[in-house]
Design a protein that fits this description.
With about 170 residues, the protein is α/β, with parallel strands linked by helices. The chain has one domain: Rossmann fold (3-Layer(aba) Sandwich). The protein is about 35% helix and about 20% strand. The protein has a six-stranded mixed sheet, with helices on one face. Strands 4-5-6 form a three-stranded antiparallel sheet, with no helix packed on it. The two termini are about 25 Å apart. About 40% of the residues are buried.
Amino acid sequence: MERRSVLIIESIPQYQDPSEGAMLSEVLEMASTDYFELHTVSNKSDLLDMLEDRAFMRRFKIVHMSGHGDEEKPNFLLPRGSINASEFPVNCFRNKTVCMSACTLGKGRFVAPFMERTDARFVIGPRRSPYFIDATLFFLTFYYWTNRRRLGIQASFNRAVRSGVRGDWWLWVP
């Protein structure tokens, strides 16, 4: 059976501990034989360098981006800066699922240009601002179904939504 590797990119400022990415990574490593890798980025340059490394990115089927979203622009916020959909490397998420755990970045204003630019297969994100614990529980449930139970992305998303976790989560399919 094919292994599903998950890259967790954490971009929450250090003073806001605990971070969702670190919490997800710790719980998932304890509960799963699958591979989860946590990387912390603090600025756009570090993020872009990681995403442009094709050999590195080829190892992962799912990319989880944990951070804050700027609803007005809309941008993915970093501890030192931000990035909008048009600044991501072209095709950097080709055939990958991207989980945007950042407030309001599950809305079309961000996701539509993001999917077009990055060629992501699926994007999951909140349309509102979820509580930290709700985002963590939602994605723990999602990863349980995708990695432990080997369900597909859409079925795993549906199970996570029906789990009772609060939030307005959205699955984007091209």
